Amino acid sequence: MTHLPYVVSAYLLGVVIPGTLGLSALLRMRAARRRLAAIEPRRRAR
Amino acid sequence: MASYTAPYAAVAFNPGARCDRVVFVDASAADAPPQSGPRPGRSLHRFANPGRFLRLSGAVLPWLAAAGVALTAVGLVWGLRFAPADWQQGDAVRIMYVHVPAAWLASAGYVGLALCSVLSLVWRHPLADLAAVEIGPVGAAFTALCLLTGSIWGKPMWGAWWVWDARLTSVLILFFLYLGHIALVRAFDDPERGYRSGAILALIGVVNLPIIKFSVDWWNTLHQPATISFTGAPTMYLGMLWPLLLAAVGYTLVFAAIVVARTRAAVMERRIRALLMARAGEAAA
Fold it and tell me: For residues B92 and B84, what is the distance between their CA atoms, to the nearest angstrom?
């Protein structure tokens, strides 16, 4: 394959940037849900 | 899920109100008829209720994320492994399967930001501000991805990591517009002023979108003109077009899933703040 370092680095960025965003969104959502459940124990946060 | 519906019920029937200001409304308000007659944008406010948003988005989000990841993976693997190399560019053309979807989403994300700004400024849609705040960083990240992969593609093809070409420069301006929006909405003690200023900036920045789109036609640029359009047949080999479309749809779903997840978190965080303030108020009383 020609230009292998360029292709690999572009694909890595294409996976790492959206992956990091997705993971951080998931963790933030879970943290908010847990905190809300702790504050508001009678009601379940989805 | 009456827990969210009840406190925010007034928002659905009072489009001019913001969530922070109408937190503690009796649950029976949800069953009360609207106090004013129909007005433009009223149907949009059916989806403004945070409780309804959390329910709907909670059901949709797993499917959205799974479909996005699956389509993106298929598109990228197809593009990397099975699509043909270009006769001129060789395998460097495979960068296209990341770069082009990122470029589309950089602009599409800004269109979403502008739509949220219109909803916020014109109809004072309660969720539009939160969605706009959450679209900003995601759009900025995809614009950065577009710029970085373009730079990586440009080095072997043009011999330079960066040129002050009209297309590249206008996309760089788009990136700065995203950064400006992110900074502006967080720059005020009063969130309402931040949301409004950010919305105005987002709407002013819309003028950059046609410049990005037509920059390759209006000026002589190193960047190639569009090979795919809605009006004409694509000038691209189908063996390259299909993985590109799959990756584009996949990345779009991933983008949407990230924004929905962040907006869900923002709605819950706002609810937490409201509950803590209520407790503090009760304790003080």
Answer: 11
Residues paired with residue B86 on neighbouring β-strands, in sequence order: B90
Extents of the domains making up chain B: 61-284
Give this prediction's pTM. 0.83
> Which two tokens mark B92?
């460097």
- For the domain made up of B61-284, give the CATH fold: Four Helix Bundle (Hemerythrin (Met), subunit A) (1.20.120)
pLDDT per residue as tens digits for the range B159-176:
999 999 999 999 999 999
- Give CA separation, B183 vs A6, B116, B137, B171, in Å: 32, 17, 10, 19
R_g over Cα of chain B: 22
Q: Which residues of A make CB contacts under 8 Å with B? A: 1-4, 6-7, 9-11, 13-15, 17-18, 21-22, 25-26, 28-29, 31-33, 35-36, 39-40, 43-46
A14 to chain B, minimum CA–CA distance in Å?
6
Q: Tens digit of pLDDT for each residue in B108-162?
A: 999 999 999 999 999 888 889 999 999 999 999 999 999 999 999 999 999 999 9
